[in-house]
Design a protein that fits this description.
With 257 residues, the protein is α/β, with parallel strands linked by helices. The protein has one domain: TIM Barrel. The chain is built from 11 helices and 8 strands. The protein has helices at 18-31, 49-58, 86-89, 101-106, 111-123, 136-140, 144-155, 185-203, 205-210, 224-228, 245-254; strands spanning 6-11, 38-43, 65-69, 95-98, 127-132, 168-171, 212-216, 235-238. Helix 1 packs parallel to helix 2, helix 1 (18-31) packs across helix 11 (245-254) and helix 7 (144-155) runs parallel beside helix 8. The mean pLDDT is 96. The structure holds 1,3-dihydroxyacetonephosphate. 1,3-dihydroxyacetonephosphate binds next to strand 8. 1,3-dihydroxyacetonephosphate (13P) is lined by residues 11, 100, 172, 177-178, 216-219, 237-241.
Length: 257
């Protein structure tokens, strides 16, 4: 089932000062003035959440733009230097990306940590944007399905049928991130179907049809429409193109039915 409104999520990654991020947000809002036919989320660096939260409150017209964190700690509080917890983020953001492949690969984040992050996010009212996806070697070895199923199996192990509705699953093949090579339509549809079936099997049809499944990896203003028209695609998770206001706005428009 495709949900009525697409969700377009911008992941700003490690880019922009607070001043630059504020201007970026203003420009995105300006480009999309009056638009209300999509759920729009931006995920800036953690330092930007508070000023951008305030900035959003000053916007008086559509579009409604929501905030997400890029990561949260797998601990709630305590002696964990450098971490930011779900409790700290929840007053500023509605969502948190969890288990992005850059965190899995560059920071050695494990599925066990990701399981804890998902549970902590849900406990404190944050909606997880859970990223899964295979790397190139795994795809070439014919292991893509198994990798994604294993990630889902572990990362969602503490999630209930009621909670799954709040989770957005982002299929992001590692080889498509930041490379300009987006996955082929058939590959995307195949994975979205696999993920949906896994949710249905585990959580039941009703709960599973309400959670959103999105694609991420080299989404831009040109390919966004075709990607979002694919069967089972509820939206996109955008990296590089989310830093360009006109292009991000074009992607948001591309999601309109
Ligand atoms: P790109 O859109 O730059 O490929 O990044 C995708 C991504 O990692 C979003 O989380």
């Amino acid at each position: 089932m495709n949900l009525p409104h697409k969700i377009i999520i911008g992941n700003w990654k490690l880019n922009d000062t607070i001043a630059e991020g504020t201007v970026l947000l203003q420009k995105i809002h300006q480009e999309l003035k009056g638009f209300s036919a999509a759920t729009i989320v931006v995920c800036p660096p953690a330092t930007h959440l508070y000023p951008l939260h305030r900035e959003l409150k000053s916007f008086k017209s559509d579009p409604k733009i929501e905030l997400g964190a890029q990561n949260i700690s797998d601990y709630e509080a305590g002696a964990h230097t450098g971490e930011v917890s779900a409790i700290m983020v929840r007053d500023l953001a509605k969502y948190s990306i969890i288990g992005h492949s850059e965190r899995r690969t560059h920071y050695g984040e494990t599925d066990d940590q990701i399981t804890r992050k998902v549970a902590i996010a849900l406990e404190h009212g944050l909606q997880p944007i859970l990223c899964v996806g295979e790397n190139l070697a795994q795809r070439h070895d014919g292991k893509a399905h198994q990798v994604v199923l294993d990630q889902l199996n572990t990362d969602l192990s503490d999630v209930t049928a009621d909670e799954i509705k709040k989770i957005i699953i982002a299929y992001e093949p590692v080889w498509a991130i930041g490379t300009g090579t987006f996955a082929k339509p058939g590959e995307i549809e195949d994975m979205l179907r696999l993920i949906r079936n896994a949710l249905v099997q585990r959580f039941g049809r009703l709960a599973s049809t309400e959670s959103r499944i999105v694609y991420g990896g080299s989404v831009d203003g040109e390919n966004a429409k075709a990607i979002m028209q694919l069967q089972g695609c509820d939206g996109v998770l955008v990296g590089g193109a989310s830093l360009k206001p006109k292009e991000f706005a074009a992607i948001v428009h591309a999601g309109q039915k």
